[in-house]
Amino acid sequence: MAEAADFQGTSASPARRWLRRTGALLAGAPLLAGLLQLPAATPADASGQESPQAASGAGSVSVAVDSLTPSTPTEGDTVNVTGTVTNNGKQPVTDAHVDLRVGPSLDTRSSIDALAKKSDDVQGPAGKAVGGKYTEKFSQLAPGVAEPFNISVPVDELDLGQDGVYQLAVALSGETAAQPWDQVLGVQRTFLPWQPEEAGTKTKTTFLWPLVSDVHMTAETGSNEQQTPVFSNDDLAEEISPGGRLDQMVSLGKGLDVTWVIDPDLLASVDAMTKNYEVRGEDGATTSGRSQAVAKQWLSELQQAVAGKEVVALPFGDPDLASLAHNGTTVTGSLSHLKEATDAVDNTVPTILHTKPSTDFAWPVDGAVDPSIMKVATSAGADKVIARSDSLQDNLSYTPSAARPIGGGTTAVVADSRMSTAFQGDLTKASASTLAVQRFLAQSLTLGLQTGKQRSVVVAPQRTPSVNQAQAMAEALGTLQGANWSESQDLTAAAKAKPDPAANRKVPSTRAYPPSLRKQELPRAAFEQIARTRDNLDNFKVILTDESRVVTPFGRAMNREMSTSWRGRGVAAVGYRDDVESYLDGLIDGVKLIKKSETKLSGRSATIPVTVQNNLVQGVEHLELRLTSQNPTRLKIGGNAYEEQRVAVNGGHSQSVKFTTSANANGRAKVEAQLYTEDGRKYGEPVTFDVKVTEVTPTVMLVIGGGVLLLVLAGFRMYTQRKRAAARDEAEDAAGEADDDVDNPVAASQNPEAPGDRLKEESEAGSRADAPQQPSDPALDTAAESADPSGTGERVDR
Fold first, then answer.
1. Which of 40, 75, 138, 364 is the most buried (most CB within 10 A)?
2. Biggest CA-to-CA distance, the chain
3. Is 328 helix (H, G, I), strand (E, B) or coil?
4. Average pLDDT over residues 441-455
5. Distance CA 267, CA 261 (A)
6. pLDDT (tens digit, 9 = 90+) per residue, 740-766?
7. What DSSP letter does each residue of 435-446 carry, written as one string?
């Protein structure tokens, strides 16, 4: 820009010339620095000293160390290293060769961490090459091709010095067309612990072996006597099947000196699978489970594995202590679930494993603690909390023992974070697993060499290791148990070990809790939903004749709703809680009032039936049905505004309860029926219906009375008419008999007085007929023979 500002034809001023020269120098500085960094194209030192510095194209070949045996060599051993080298570049590598290189000892645990982060960095020092016949050569490495290598070196050739951890690097060197000189194109560093003699003071190591799984059982059970359990999926069957994760945990842990840490829910779930059980599919339908034999075999192997070993039982369902401490304590009743989960251990672990577990330990997620977590962790009876050293940190140059009294009778058992996290991540590749094992052993040896005092170290790995992680753990622990610097110890002994007076005993503040862990916690809404389910269950169980059929499965389900396994699976956690609540609501709705339509009531008093239906398989009792009149001035129930009656209904039946009512006026009155428990809490939804009252008045009674009187009079008249007709018929019959006597002399002679008498009667009758009628004389009685309808007022509709 200065040059463009000069006027044409004039020379630049001294200031402008200085600016141009300075700019040119700055622009050429990066190029000069690049030239200075180019390595000299000299061959490797035949004496086996440091190889030439790697060129800028280094790293084009990846080196994988798949195995290193023995992991902790001693005098006279031969170290065997196998693996592969892969050319990831675009050009072939010629004159390639793989050799072992031994670096200096690593004196601190932090130096091991630093090297592990740069294990494949070709720019760093690789160490002294063993060389000679202990080198494997390749004429050419084609692009994209992986070649195996196998190098065996007597430990004496490694020139190891005093006890400690040494860097062992596997390096691939060669040439390319673009850079035709010998250079390191790929490297993989690992660790070689060296302790050939028995240590004077060994580190006591406690390794926790966790048997924990996700939630599998639902709250739903069958209606049969055995209450067949229902599983949300069949994943647990896969885990305990041969080769599955939990099968491997038992098989690998059987031969190790470990402290078994077990979730009782896992045992209860597998034990349920030994009998009939159902599995719910994605479509909601259930099918019969078929893994009874697998479940029985797994439990049998576990019983053998834990025999004589220390077993620590977590509370049932492995509740998330941090979530409870941060989000649940303000919700009424949340802490009671933790106590119930702890009490459930006694009915699970001893029965299934035939051994008495320890319930003195609480284990927050990743050992992260703060004062609220400590308070919750010990609220259910535990007096020892398994923390981790990256949470409860020490500012010391060495690693102190695990036990830390923190006051109030509580001991923090601080697990070593470096050793506890050594087996996290993807260990599916053999190279990753080998590096994890060697790093774990290196940390253990370096820790033991820090001081001359014996210390107790606890290793608390992740709760649910994968199969590959479990295999790496078992390999490392098996090697450690045979090493010269460590000996096994159970968790109870580690908690009782003499604490280091210089160790930190102050629990970090709540603000120090890792944000990444807090994001995974169960929210307050989860605990509110659990509390709502608990209230509904408490209101429901009091009416049951056998409450254990409901209380036990739902109690365990609520423990599972607080499980640590829900971390990172928020959607699944919500779905599980909703299913539990919905299923309970369905059972509660199984006992209900049948809806009623409008009821008509005639008269001063009547009975109103209300039906209670029980669709449960068991009977219900301790219920009261209350019928309440919303307008007691018009309609009273049992002489008052309401009446209550006790209700007991057998399973699968209905019962009608009758209430006496009395009406005072015509019209509609609204009535409400509501079920109550004995403690006065409403049960279920009320049923409301209208009662139409048509009251009977005195005027109506008079009309009815008059009608009855007319009915009586009409009946009396009909009676007299029929009596007169009968008399007339008898007279006519007598006259007929007299005529018969005249026609029959024989009959007349037998009754001499009859003819005279009859003639006299006929003469009198004829004279009366001829006489004039008197007003007071009755008319001839012929009405009974009439076919016409009765007169008005003589018929009564009934």
1. 364
2. 197
3. helix
4. 94
5. 12
6. 444 444 333 444 444 444 434 444 444
7. HHHHHHHHHHHH
> d(Cα 368, Cα 370) in Å, to the nearest integer?
7
Query: Measuring CA to CA, which residue among 636, 531, 645 is closest to residue 577?
Result: 531
Query: How many other CB atoms sit within 10 Å of the CB of residue 648?
Result: 14
Residue 288, both tokens: 């019969």
pLDDT reported for residue 125:
85
| Cα(472)–Cα(426) distance, integer angstroms | 11
Give the strand pairing for 620-629 and 599-602. unpaired
Decide: residue 256, CB within 10 A, 0-12 exposed, 13-18 middle, 19+ buried: middle
For residue 637, the cross-strand partners are 640, 661
548-561 vs 570-588: helix axis angle to the nearest 10? Answer: 160
Spatial separation of the C-alpha atoms in residues 798 and 795, rounded to whole Å: 9
Measured distance CA(320)–CA(564) in Å, rounded? 4
* Token pair for 186: 């790929």
**Contacts with 648 (C-beta within 8 Å, 6 or more apart), sequence order:** 619, 620, 621, 622, 623, 655
Name the more confident of 763 and 207.
207
- Buried b or exposed e, range 8-46, using 16+ CB within 10 angstroms: eeeeeeeeeeeeeeeeeeeeeeeeeeeeeeeeeeeebee
The model's pLDDT over 607-645, given as tens digits with 9 standing for 90+, comes to 999 999 999 999 999 999 999 999 998 899 988 999 999
Regarding pTM above 0.70, the answer is yes
Q: Do the beta carbons of residue 440 and residue 419 sit within 8 Å?
A: yes
Give the type of residue at 331: V
The Cα 279–Cα 269 span in angstroms is 12
Which amino acid belongs to residue 329?
T
Structure token digits, residue 460: 């608390």
Chain-centre distance for alpha carbon 353: 23
* DSSP letter, residue 107: -
Alpha-carbon gap, residue 419 to 445, rounded angstroms? 11
Q: What φ, ψ does residue 138 adopt, rounded to 5°?
A: -130, 130
Burial environment of residue 52 by CB neighbours within 10 A (0 to 12, 13 to 18, 19 or more): middle
**Which of 429, 480, 404 has its CA nearest to residue 195?**
480
**Residue-level pLDDT at 624:** 96
pLDDT tens column, 565-600: 999 999 999 999 999 999 999 999 999 999 998 888
Q: Compare 778 and 132 and report the one with higher pLDDT.
A: 132
> Read out DSSP for 625-671?
EEEEES-TTTEEETTBSEEEEEEEE-TT-EEEEEEEEEE-SSEEEEE
Are 89 and 158 spatial neighbours (Cβ–Cβ below 8 Å)? Answer: no
Q: What is residue 604's DSSP assignment?
A: S
DSSP letters along 493-507, please?
Answer: HHHHSPPPTTS--PP
Q: Tell me if 445 sits within 8 A of 193, measured CB to CB.
A: yes
719 band by pLDDT with thresholds 50, 70 and 90? confident
Residue 358 DSSP one-character state: B
**Close Cβ partners of 170 (under 8 Å, ≥ 6 residues apart):** 63, 65, 81, 83, 98, 99, 100, 101, 149, 151, 187, 188, 189, 190
Q: Which residues contact 655 (CB under 8 A, 6 or more apart)?
A: 611, 612, 614, 647, 648, 649
Q: Which residue has the tokens 């008059």?
A: 706
Pairwise CA distance, residues 412 & 410, whole Å: 7
| Encoded amino acid at 150, one letter | N
Q: How many residues are there in the chain?
A: 798
Amino acid at 496: K
CB 754 within 8 A of CB 747: no
- Do the beta carbons of residue 141 and residue 87 sit within 8 Å? yes
> In sequence order, what DSSP letters do the residues of 165-207 get, joined into one string?
EEEEEEEEEEE-SSS-S-EEEEEEEEEEEE--S--SSPEEEEE
